[in-house]
Amino acid sequence: STGQRIIWCRPLNADAKLMAWKNSGMRVILLLLLLPLVSSLGPNVVFILIDDTGFNDIGYNNKSSSSPIPRIRTPHIDALAETGVTLTNFYVQPICTPTRAALMTGRYPFRYGVTGYTISADAPWGIPVNETFLPEFLKDNGYATAMFGKWHLGFYKPEYLPMSRGFDRQSGIYNALADHFSHVIGPGYDWHVNQTTDWSLKGQYSGNLVRDNAVAYIRERSRGSHLSEPFFLYIPFQEAHSPYQAPQEYLDMYPELAGTPERQNLAGMITHNDDMIGDIIAALHDTGLHSNTIVFFCADNGGPGGQEQVPTPSRFDSAVLDRNWPFRGQKHEVYEGGVRVAGVVSSPLLPEEAVGSTVDSIVHITDMLPTILSATSSSISREHLPWDGVDMWPCITGHIPSCQRSDVVLNLNTVCDPPGSSAHNFTTECPAPKAALRVGELKLLAECYNVSTGTLTGTLTLTLTLTLTPSLTGRRMLYNLTADPSESHDLSTELHQELALLSAKLTAYGRQAAKIPALEGAAPWQGEGYYCANCTPGRPKGSKGKESWEPWCAGPPGQVC
């Protein structure tokens, strides 16, 4: 009932003791021989991204006696925090695709229109190919690259798949979610290995597959000629995204939740996910690669509600969910509970004084691209669009004056709700407030940034002029997050000057967001001007019973299908 696993060990006989001694001795000799080679390489990077996991779902956050959540056990993630640096003000986007895109591009997702919707399975759309992805920069610097897990950045044309965006290898799902055992979403199967459907894996739990791929890759990188090449391993687990399914042994760890099966499955999924992470870290230790590896860990957004008796997202949501405590809100929302998550950086390469420390400065998911390039001493030889991310590696390694990120845009969803909308009546996947900015301790939330208040005027020759008067609309709320992390005391009627300053700053970002139409959940997908506005929506390919999600839109990006 404690969730602890007991391993019974039989005493070794004399021959076994001798063999164990020889093996351990050989391992020490091998590691000593490898040290000069390892020290001359750039560090390996392992980035672990877990899905739909709240700030208070993680053990090191819910150990407090004041925490309302039943103790969810994540000892391996806790160990990463204890041996690394905990990022206490780590921010992501409120839903899946935008966070993954921000990680890969180092740019705010509003710059390419991904603010209120994730990429649906049938969408002829992907993160634009003029956006350079993190593994592409690392490959330029001699890194091997691999990703195992959930992609969710587009797949309608081959050019949007992982191996066209800088990864040498891939295994996992293309879409947002799938059954964790059957890997089916809607009418189609979705598990691919190196971008080829692999039906043999149907029935095997997704988290186990991701773990097995990662461990096998690490072991491979520790042998032969691979030792002369550093690697970047991206591990975006599907857990703990719905559907809530966990292996039985993990359900048995939480008998106190048996009366609420979804919550029991959720707790089991998180602890199972933690064990898979533990196996990956163990593989780094077993192969001797841990000494030259930096591990990054975070969730992609806050925990969603909707389980038994747990509220679902709503406009101006006032709920503080146990799993996101002490923060207000949940996935889909720009309150802290939707965008502030657990974040850790762990490595033997960190200075001794940094081990077990915290960084209380603002850190955002866009920062990970320049931070990883800095940590690996990578040079930038290709042109790229301007990053919004900040190099936080000096800050993480203990240089406090480098902790200088002063503000962060948490979302700019420009698709406003209709006037008079009820709590659960909202456009896009994300309810109001739809725009948010943090500057220092203060956070501004705005009901919406309205780009549709202009009028069209023209002549008989159809030469059109678009006159826009974009602005922040509706309610605005201002909170001091240090004094009020639950965002319960609105200061907007008290701090007039601060409200004006943050509003001006958010409006300036809004003008930039207004230049790019927002991704939609159906045709025309990204405004009437989108080249594939009338393209055929995707459907799984194959014969009945063997239908799988594959790219379906022929021709290069920019060519209608």
Short structural summary:
The protein is an alpha/beta fold and 561 residues long. Helix content is 24%, strand content 18%.
Q: Can you offer a commentary on this structure?
A:
The structure is a single chain. With 561 residues, the protein is α/β, with parallel strands linked by helices. It is 24% helix and 18% strand. It is built from twelve helices and 19 strands. It has helices at 14-40, 59-62, 75-82, 96-105, 134-140, 206-221, 248-251, 261-286, 336-339, 368-375, 393-396, 496-513, and strands at residues 44-50, 84-91, 144-150, 169-173, 184-185, 188-189, 192-193, 196-197, 231-236, 293-299, 340-341, 343-346, 357-364, 407-412, 435-439, 442-450, 455-458, 464-467, 471-480. Strands 1, 2, 3, 4, 7, 8, 9, 10, 11, 12 and 13 form an eleven-stranded mixed beta sheet that branches. A four-stranded antiparallel beta sheet has the order 14-15-16-19, with helices on one face. The chain has a two-stranded antiparallel ribbon with strand order 5-6. Strand 17 and strand 18 (464-467) form a beta hairpin. Helix 6 (206-221) packs parallel to helix 8. The termini are far apart. The model is unreliable at 1-24, 27-31, 34-39 and 454-468 (pLDDT under 50).
